[in-house]
Amino acid sequence: MKFDHLKGSVVAMVTPFHEDGSVNFDVLTQLLERQITAGTDAILTLGTTGEYSTMTHEEDAAVVAHTIKVVNGRVPVMVGSGSNCTATQIEKSIEYQNMGADALLLIAPYYNKANAEGMYRHFAQTADAVDIPCILYNVPGRTGCSIPVSVVERLCTHPNIAGIKEASGDMSYAMKIAARCVGPDFALYSGNDDITVPLLSIGGSGVISVYANVMPAMCHQIVADYLGGSQARAVANHLKYLQLMNDLFLEVNPIPVKTAMNMMGLNVGPMRLPLCEMSEANAAVLRASLKEADLL
């Protein structure tokens, strides 16, 4: 399955755990089948929502192998291979490519907070080492640094760099990317569910979504409608479920989305420390939002 300039809804999958913290592969299979049945356009595994930062390298590889096996080419599989160590990022990227990944998600180097040239080399050397599309991941709220627009401009012409997941929430930044970088070989994806439609309106190709874990068919429909010419319906549905999208970030992701999925009976289990259960007050707000959306 090729990823080339994919348009649509890419679900940022949660990683389900047993109560003892081990990966629940049976539930992972069920979740993947649920996404494909609902029309999700691609799967992202080992993203922020997947809690890869508290998983071992062996667990990462096992989840990737299982995901690729279950999906079996029905939709593209993107794998988060990013690291703040460029050598580690390259190693993981090659490994996941060899396992059958269709694309890679590369996060800005967190904690190190590289200068512009270092950040450029971090991404460029990784893209040089693989033969599948790489998607940049700009999420300064997590990494402590933003990928400078000038760096994205340099990278967008690389044959293996196919787009950016823009999760800063900064529409001015997104518009600069749209104006200077987006084209037939470089796509813009929303990394924030609440601004998916605004990013589509400036030339975005879709969303890499947390919300899609909860309402995969609707997330797909919103993007498909907007890109297919039914913008009014896309806007109406986006606004209808905006409160739920926002409430999935009442606490740090993926605490609310896993809490919501457990409320819905999807049995994704707990988070791994340092993430823990949601506060009772926020859980009550989330439950009300799920009821409003007819999910409970």
Outline the structure in words.
- With 296 residues, the chain is an alpha/beta fold.
- It has a single domain, classed as Aldolase class I (TIM Barrel).
- The chain is 46% helix and 12% strand.
- It contains 13 helices and eight strands.
- It starts with 7 loop residues before the first strand and ends with a helix.
Structure in a nutshell:
The protein is α/β, with parallel strands linked by helices and 296 residues long. It has 13 helices and 8 strands. It is globular and about 50 Å long.
Looking at this protein, list some descriptive labels.
296 residues, alpha/beta, TIM Barrel
CATH topology: TIM Barrel
Order of helices and strands: EHEHEHEHEHHEHEHEHHHHH
**Count of distinct strands:** 8
CATH class: Alpha Beta
Oligomeric state? single chain
Helix coverage percent: 40-55%
In what range is the share of β-strand residues? Answer: 5-15%
End-to-end distance, in Å?
Answer: 35 Å
- Number of H- or I-type helical stretches: 13
Name the structural class: alpha/beta
Rg calculated over all Cα atoms: 18 Å
List the helices and strands and how they pair.
Layout: E1 8-12, H1 25-38, E2 42-45, H2 57-71, E3 77-80, H3 86-99, E4 103-107, H4 116-129, E5 134-138, H5 140-143, H6 149-155, E6 161-166, H7 171-180, E7 187-190, H8 196-201, E8 206-209, H9 216-228, H10 231-240, H11 242-247, H12 255-263, H13 280-292
Parallel strand pairs: 1-2, 1-8, 2-3, 3-4, 4-5, 5-6, 6-7, 7-8
